[in-house]
Amino acid sequence: MRILWILIKKEWTEALRSKRFLSLVVLFVFFGLLSPLTARFMNDIVKALVTDPSVAEITKYMPEPTYLDAYRQIFKNFSQMGVLIILLVFMGMVSTEKSKGTAVLVLTKGVPRGTFLVAKFISALVVFLISYGVSIGIFLYYTNLLFGKVLDSSTLPSFFFFGLFVIFMIALTLFCSTLAKSTGQSALMVVLTYFLLSILSAVPQLKAYLPNTLSAFNYPLSDAANALSQYQGPILSSLVLTAFFMVGAIMIFRKQEI
């Protein structure tokens, strides 16, 4: 446990030094700020830009934005740009250290390989959760400011769902980074897997069980209990695959020659 804590502090120091943490926080804050502003003023912007009278007449029938539009916007940003940014930030967390030889320096000091990977997973998780939490706080503040309503039992579960999906993606990224010999290979493996999941989600029979189903804004949901029941398949698959990728990464890493 003491070794794990030391490694986590090491990873956290490196995240601060490399500006990995700062860059992720800034980008997620941007999403949290931009999403309610876009939802609130997009109609006004479109109307201001339209010069054709016939088109201008159509814009009169555009529905008034609600706080749900802000939710749709932020989860669109999260599930598209947000996930890709997370993959880019963490794709080299093991492969980079292997290629540079820094992993050898740590492991030769008696650090268990499993502990080495668990520390990286926990550190990546903390970096994401802090960035995600700050983004949600800013989003809720400006959504309340612009729309006068921000949370109900139908919208709250979506934050949990997306967080669970990202935890799965971090485990997948760790697995690919462990398996790969270079950061480029790791990036290719993670991105291909991500797009494969996106393609498979187009099949209705599979979508009900794929983790990336959790990355969208799931509305309406009557309450949190109903949400857990309604999305039981993606929740269970995310948890099972997260455990699978973590155990798989540890087993592979223990057998690798570094």
Structural summary, described in words:
The protein has 258 residues and is an all-alpha fold. The chain has one domain. It contains 12 helices and no strands. 35% of the residues are buried.
Features:
mainly alpha, 0% strand, 258 residues
Short structural description:
The protein is an all-alpha fold.
Along the chain, the helix and strand elements come as: HHHHHHHHHHHH
Strand segment tally: 0
- What average pLDDT do the residues reach? 83
Estimated structural class: mainly alpha
Provide the β-strand percentage band.
under 5%
Helix content: over 70%
> Taking Cα atoms only, what radius of gyration do you get, to the nearest Å?
21 Å
What count of helical segments does DSSP give?
A: 12
Number of separate domains: 1
Distance between the termini: 24 Å
Morphology: elongated
Low-confidence parts: none
Biggest beta-sheet profile:
none
